[in-house]
Design a protein that fits this description.
With 245 residues, the protein is an alpha+beta fold. The chain has six helices and 15 strands. Strands 4-6-9-8-10-14 form a six-stranded mixed sheet. It has a four-stranded antiparallel sheet with strand order 1-2-15-7, with no helix packed on it.
């Protein structure tokens, strides 16, 4: 971790840069304190604009990220062809200087790059996105042999906090009967789901074998992370990736 940012620990090529923010380093007041990067919550627009400026300046991003209007779907857009705010849950590019980013506050952010350092992607994967195939769609959009891809799993709600009902578990087991180990009974008679494990299974099944990250629970760490399930009204963190020349 460097300052207010988490820098992925993965064997990405030298021309691939990536960062995941915490809630620190911004100007937003409670309950968005302080580095809220989402303009879809009730935070003041001028606070969001200043926070985004600080993100870009503090991480030496080459330009503003391509922000998405996330809808828990599987649509992937080409960042260098996006025109304005696009409804999608993942973006990719092969152009240097154009950060791809997703916003989260419990959902799982997933970053991708290829071993050659020619293309990158960021995906927003909550349980609906995972079940709907957003990771599969992102891998497909990159048009690289899956074995040549690296993936990094950013901060998300952890397996001790993410309680779901039978309908969520059933949906995943219908897609992948081997996913039973990603669910364990909760004291309330429901299920505790492991988003990290579910994502790894989906990625490994695609042939993406080098998957790093995981283990940073947003729900369990209110000092560092926003969590929608914990707090309701809250901010959003960004996880971004870009290529440099």
């Amino acid at each position: 971790m460097s300052g207010h940012w988490i820098v992925p620990d993965w064997p990405a090529p030298a021309n691939v840069r990536a960062v995941s923010t915490t809630r620190h380093g911004g100007v937003s007041p409670p309950p968005y304190d302080s580095l809220n990067l989402a303009d879809s919550v009730a935070d003041a627009p001028e606070h969001v604009a200043e926070n985004r400026r600080r993100l870009q300046q503090g991480t030496t991003m080459p330009g503003p990220p391509v922000w998405l209007r996330q809808v828990h779907g599987r649509r992937v857009v080409t960042a260098h062809a996006a025109d304005g705010l696009v409804e999608a849950d993942a973006a990719w590019t092969d152009r240097p200087g154009l950060p791809c980013a997703v916003l989260t506050a419990d959902c799982l952010p997933v970053l991708f790059c290829d071993r050659a350092g020619t293309r990158v992607a960021a995906a927003h994967a909550g349980w609906r996105g995972l079940a709907g195939g957003v990771l599969e769609a992102t891998v497909d959009a990159l048009q690289v042999e899956p074995s040549e891809l690296l993936a990094w799993l950013g901060p998300a709600i952890g397996p001790d906090a993410f309680e779901v009902g039978d309908e969520v578990r059933d949906r995943f087991l219908t897609l992948d009967p081997g996913a039973t180990a990603a669910f364990r009974p909760s004291p309330q008679g429901r299920w505790l789901a492991d988003l990290y494990r579910l994502a790894r299974r989906r990625l490994n099944g695609l042939g993406v074998k080098d998957v790093r990250g995981g283990g940073l629970c947003t729900h369990a760490d209110p000092e560092r992370f926003y969590s929608y399930r914990r707090d309701g009204e809250t901010g959003r963190m960004a996880t971004a990736i870009w290529l440099v020349d």
